[in-house]
Amino acid sequence: xxxxxxxxxxQLDHLGELLDELFLMMPALMRSGCDETALTPHQGILLRxxxxxxxxxxxxxxxxxxxxxxxxxxxxxRLAKLGFVHKKPLAADRRTVTVAITERGRAMLAQQRKVxxxxxxxxxxxxxxxDQGQIVRSFETIVELFGRAAAASVTxxxxxx
Length: 161
Prior knowledge:
This protein is mainly alpha-helical. The protein folds into two domains: 36-126, Orthogonal Bundle (Arc Repressor Mutant, subunit A); 128-161. The chain has six helices and three strands, in the order ααβααββαα.
């Protein structure tokens, strides 16, 4: 006898299908006449985090961006070679290395934001004003709900620790 699927399982399946559809649509939607930036998605996310939070120790970066230690070190190394971040040992503890965004990194993020703005314009211009507002409100809702889920996850981790 097959056990009926729970509502959460059904929601997860449907969410996966919706995300697959969105990811398949995005390349066609996001094409525009603008230049490409030299950042990979992971590099861009890391630079935006450093811009928002300021200099972070490598240990803190690993906390915010879970993954293999060597992957984070490689990512930071590539960004440093490009001149987008600089690494600096802490004076109090030379074993602790902090990573901070450079002016060149900030300029790259500004360029990336400009490119993304044009790509988003390319998408929104194809829709009515009503649909444009609905997309923006939908993303506001997504950010709010994922923010709540993230806050609940942090609270659970703190209770366990």
